[in-house]
Design a protein that fits this description.
N-terminal domain of MutM-like DNA repair proteins, Helicase, Ruva Protein, domain 3, 2 domains
Length: 269
């Protein structure tokens, strides 16, 4: 599932590709991906344009010139592609937004969604989400306050969107490894020094992942050399049985609350 770095990569790349371009057509192949009637959705978009693009947690928020927003959540297996009909991957699309000769294709939205909202409605939906880990005002002191709100283990807490926004399976494991902490450690057991290591690890891993385009390797457009480059840099995620880059021991895979979890039992404690 795309997480904070993947959605931030989409935000940065799409902003220069689609903002300000007039929407010339819309196709809806799967009405269940929407929250409104397809005819209304098409009517609201055609002739309009996107004037801003934000990210909140694992969502993208497309701001329309008319004041409404589209809220995208790709969920499991969703991705996007921008290009011409000739360049489009041989995959079924659920929604297509056209900008003349180039189009934005939404692929794999059978679990995800693209919903039309008034901005105030979207803000209410996001109110239940936890703080953004990379927000400038999210200091170590604020992080400590959040840590006090839960008593579960690191893995379960980090992927809880009401605890912190945007972190999922991949980056929870990468953050714990960077910090040298076992994902099974309970939050109340962390010393202040370990809390600080976790805070530094969280910011460092997420910023590095954004720099290298996240771990999902489907290109956004032909010639895209950024998207998915972090996959090769993952230290533990999906590396079961491989040697730990820090100590050489074999990496472990287990399940924590029905989620796969990767770590080094030797150098994480």
């Amino acid at each position: 599932m795309p997480e904070l770095p993947e959605m931030e990569t989409y935000r940065q790349q799409l902003s220069r590709l689609i903002l300000g371009n007039v929407i010339t057509g819309v196709e809806v192949e799967r009405p269940k991906s929407l929250n409104v009637d397809p005819d209304l959705f098409i009517h609201k978009l055609v002739g309009n344009q996107f004037v801003g693009l934000d990210r909140r947690a694992k969502h993208l928020v497309f701001h329309l010139g008319s004041g409404e927003v589209l809220v995208l959540h790709l969920m499991l297996g969703g991705w996007m592609f921008y290009g011409s009909e000739a360049e489009k991957p041989e995959r079924t699309t659920q929604v297509v937004i056209r900008f003349g000769m180039r189009n934005l294709y939404f692929i794999g939205l059978r679990l995800g969604y693209l919903h039309l909202h008034a901005l105030s409605e979207a803000e209410k939906l996001f109110a239940k989400l936890g703080p953004e880990p990379l927000a400038p005002n999210f200091t170590f002191g604020e992080f400590q306050k959040v840590l006090k709100s839960k008593r579960s283990n690191l893995k379960v807490s980090l992927v809880d969107q009401a605890f912190l926004s945007g972190i999922g399976n991949c980056y929870s494991d990468e953050i714990c490894f960077y910090a040298g902490l076992l994902p099974l450690r309970k939050l109340p057991s962390l010393t202040e020094e370990e809390q600080h290591r976790l805070f530094v690890a969280m910011r460092s891993v997420l910023l590095e992942a954004i720099q290298f385009g996240g771990y999902i390797d489907e290109p956004l457009f032909v010639g895209d050399r950024l998207t998915g480059q972090f996959d090769a840099k993952c230290r533990v995620y999906d590396r079961e049985g491989e040697s730990c880059v820090r100590c050489g021991h074999a990496l472990i895979k287990t399940e924590v609350s029905s989620r796969k979890c990767f770590y080094c039992v030797n150098c994480q404690s």
